[in-house]
Amino acid sequence: MDELRLHYRFLSWRRRIREIREVRAGRQERSRHILVDGDTLSYHGDSGEVGCYVAPRPLTRDNNYFEVSIVDSGVRGTIAVGLVPQSYSLDHQPGWLPDSVAYHADDGKLYSGRAKGRQFGTKCSSGDRIGCGIEPASFEVRTAQVFFTKNGERVGSTVMPRGPEGLFPAVGMHSLGEEVRLHLRAELGTEQDEGAMMVVDSHEDEWGRLHDVRACGTLLEYAGKGKSIVDVGLAQARRPLSPRSHYFEVEIVDPGEKCYIALGLARKDYPKNRHPGWSRGSVAYHADDGKIFHGSGVGDPFGPRCYKGDIMGCGIMFPRDYSLDSEGDSDDPSDTAEVRPKARGVRNVTYLHQEEEEEEEEEEDDGEDTEQEHGGRKVVVFFTRNGKIIGKKEAAVPRGGYFPTVGMLSSGEKVKVDLHPLSG
After folding, report:
1. What is the pLDDT of residues 376-386, one digit of tens each?
2. N or C, fewer C-beta in 10 Å, the chain?
3. C-alpha count within 13 angstroms, C-beta hemisphere, residue 90
């Protein structure tokens, strides 16, 4: 029996080595438990086996986008569309293994290098089209900004490493009856392309201040020395949170040496060499120790630590009658409208302000008093980790509003920021 197992294992390894050699030679596409008939792919397994298809060529600057039309969503609709390395294991759905990413039709989640996804878009079924592409500017660097579409409209984007061999279109299936049509040379419409270019070009315009931080699309990279506590890299959004845009997120792409990454809110004139949360007029959740800092260099236990791949979020639950005009900082009358936020992946955000929390906060020097004296109305600031609320803090909004602020303090730190994750 043992000899038989070894024999089958040996044959499996030989087949695997042969597949890798054939792929590197550029001779064929690869698939397992998927029947390929021209541009039609259909599931050909027993529902306990993952089906995976990998295209023979990677996306390039001249051919940076492809689409998959769902002909039949089958029993469970477990269809995945994304990008993988050249020699990706065909035993796993795209997005489950490192250096791969995929949009999954059955739950609308994005899977990026692990078998646990995060809420990203809506579910897809028969008749829908899922598209995936790489921004043209990404081909000049090693980091790829990958975007996804549904029926020709953008769903969102993410940042991932791109190896020297490139990223290959991939399709995954996992239930009977699933069938798709693959369009490897699909093109986005002119109107969509122009809109996409505007989005890419506008990322840097979203930041009011960048100190010792480099911005590349939605990716922020620490560019400071990282030698002392004054070597803070600070990125502050151009506009404050408002009832219309009340929440933002940060994904830790690279924790760097110490993961001294902080996410929070700060006044517009916040010191550039102070981590968010350390000084008056700010509050922040720190990834390295899971503490919350509120206008003081001493933090309080708050939530779990955060690591590579984790998504930290921060938002404000504004009172229903809240008006930014009272803070003297809004030129947009729509910002004063009453809004019931629809939080994607964040539970019970709408009713946070109705929950009562029995906790007494110690006064820290005169920081809190000064903040209240010069600040506006009190609001509830909440923080999330991987889509789940981990805690909240009552704070007085500084004059001018609370601006999304990200801090970094050790070499190699990189984060991907989404200032409007609940839009669309």
Report:
1. 689 999 999 99
2. N
3. 19
